[in-house]
Design brief:
Oligomer: single chain
Mean pLDDT: 89
Order of helices and strands: HEEHEHHHH
Radius of gyration: 20 Å
Largest sheet: 3 strands, mixed
Number of helices: 6
Structural class: mainly alpha
Low-confidence stretches: none
Amino acid sequence: MTTLELTKEQARSISNYKRMGIEIEVLDEKTVKITQSRLLNGFILNQKQLVERAKEIFPEHNIVPVVHSIDVDLIDLGWIEGRMKEFGIKRNDLIKQLAIDKSTLSSMFSGDRGLTKSQRAAFFFYFLTYELNRDFRENSIA
């Protein structure tokens, strides 16, 4: 961070956002960068939402938003199979719910066909939906 003096309220807001996976960095006297570095409860902010949050703390600054980006390289067959086991999902569920034909899915799981970036992202968000639904149901029952 630059040497810009922060008020106690600004410092507290930055700290609170950091706990929620949102990093705020003062780049210079006129510019602030806000980055969603991780997801909390699956909540993804767009650029406009990030700018709005930063403007609440730094209304006179130029804001540089950096939206959350998943690392699709972490999503491989082992990750997918682990999630399938965790949520009790079968291959037929994937075929129907992700509109993947059976031969394509078989090729993926046999290793004959690699996963594209878009397929990895689709699996990430597919399982994120299951995770959020599970958490929502558990919290609704309590």
